[in-house]
Amino acid sequence: MAMDKGLDAFKNESVESVIDTSKKVKVGIVGCGWIAGSHIEQYLKMEDVELVAVADLVPGKAEAFLAKYGVEGARCYPSHKELIDNEELDAVSICTYNCQHAEPTIYALEHGVNVMLEKPFTVTLDEAVAVMKAEKKSGKILTIGFQPRMSENMQMIKRIVESGELGDIYYLQAGGGRRRGIPTPFGTTFIEKETGGIGAVGDIGSYSLDMLLNAVGYPKPLTVTGYTSNFFGTDPKYYSNHPEYAEKFGVDDFAAAFVRLEGGIILDFRISWAMHMDTCGDALILGTKGGLRIPSTDCWNGEFDTPLKVYRNVGDKVPMCYEVPMIPSKTSFFYQKIRSFIDEVKKPAGEGKATVPSAQILYNQAIIDGIVKSNDLGREIEIEIPEI
Ligand SMILES: NC(=O)c1ccc[n+]([C@@H]2O[C@H](COP(=O)([O-])OP(=O)(O)OC[C@H]3O[C@@H](n4cnc5c(N)ncnc54)[C@H](O)[C@@H]3O)[C@@H](O)[C@H]2O)c1
């Protein structure tokens, strides 16, 4: 007999969806570096996933990776090609450095495998277009690994914009950034041209772009005046233990840009791995009826830790401001990112959708690509996005 729950019915219980474990999704991981650790941890929590194989170019790294996570029975391969050629995969995580995002992703899609690709999408716009052509031909799912999309506080930014509370949006300001945060704790793959390809502009710039552009419906970028610099990364004095990294540094450690977006929206962008400043400021969204302040973080790769603030007038003239209460997160964003991908992979063929679709992130990549090209040319450029 059903129990009358009375007032307990109003308790905020988390409702876990029931996971069907009758069929296991066969998963592989390409690249066994730092972020692959997060992917494997999530996959190992899922009873409906079988991790069948991993690959890494560095001899012994794949084996050591499986041993570290106590995985037995999965196979190791020397690159994405052998893994995909030899296994019947349903899905693969591409966890390689930026310059090896496009090739393994295209290879997986061409072989009928659904892909979770780590951010940034690619290094260049041309690569992103090539990946999307392969995606279109394959009919498979390609989702990009922006875990902040899973945060309810991040989602609130989009909800506020969509509610009309801010009116028509005309200006976006990216901010945040690091005073001293060139990512070299695990070696130099982020800072070398041959592996990272792009620096702060792609690594953490892609997060702040996604946060703002997603909120306003990802308008198409039209023109960009971009600037990048590398004063810190190329200075041996920056590195406490590895002055030789300065020689290897081949990307940007700071970027700024002025971007015109479709719909008359201006994006004022800046991002930093290193600078003589604590932050480039909060992120701002200005609309005709209100403004939104998103508190500065190092890179918006998770969420912010103080409340959003909305600025509006009471009546026609009296300025006021209110804080948006923070929502405590129930599960890790990394878990939700992988879980949502697997849930979509499990849907009948053709029904699964990308949580973070390439069609949106194409514009993110076009801006990054435009900043790099505009800096090289020393002038404003028009952003041209080929047909896919
Ligand atoms: N979502 C996040 O929070 C987050 C955090 C860190 C890094 N990342 C992204 O993840 C990617 C990887 O970062 P990382 O810190 O793990 O880098 P990493 O250099 O530690 O690891 C990358 C690994 O990929 C391997 N590799 C490269 N090409 C390969 C190929 N074709 N086949 C097999 N192995 C290959 C390399 O040998 C290396 O071991 C980057 O693009 C980065 O931007 C995302």
Task: Produce the secondary structure layout.
Layout: E1 25-30, H1 34-45, E2 49-55, H2 61-68, E3 75-77, H3 80-86, E4 91-94, H4 102-110, E5 114-117, H5 125-138, E6 142-144, H6 152-163, E7 169-173, H7 200-203, H8 205-215, E8 221-229, H9 245-248, E9 254-261, E10 265-272, E11 283-287, E12 290-294, E13 308-314, E14 318-324, H10 333-345, H11 358-377, E15 381-382
Parallel strand pairs: 1-2, 1-4, 2-3, 4-5, 5-6, 7-10
Antiparallel strand pairs: 7-11, 8-9, 8-15, 9-10, 11-12, 12-13, 13-14
Helix pairs in contact: 1-10, 4-5, 5-11, 6-8, 8-11
Bound molecules: nicotinamide-adenine-dinucleotide.
Low-confidence stretches: 1-15
Hey, roughly how much beta strand do the residues contain?
15-25%
Task: Kindly report the name of the CATH homologous superfamily of the largest domain.
Answer: Dihydrodipicolinate Reductase, domain 2
Q: From the 3D structure, determine the CATH topology of the largest domain.
A: Dihydrodipicolinate Reductase, domain 2
The H/E string reads EHEHEHEHEHEHEHHEHEEEEEEHHE
Which secondary-structure class do the elements indicate? alpha/beta
Separation of termini?
57 Å
Radius of gyration over C-alpha positions, nearest whole angstrom? 22 Å
**What is the helical fraction, as a range of percent?**
25-40%
Shape: globular
- Total number of domains: 2
Largest sheet strand order: 14-13-12-11-7-10-9-8-15
- What is the class of the largest domain in the CATH system? Alpha Beta
Please, what is the average pLDDT? Answer: 95
CATH architecture of the largest domain: 2-Layer Sandwich
> How many β-strands, per DSSP?
15
Ligand names? nicotinamide-adenine-dinucleotide
Tally of separate helices: 11
Main beta sheet, described?
9 strands, mixed
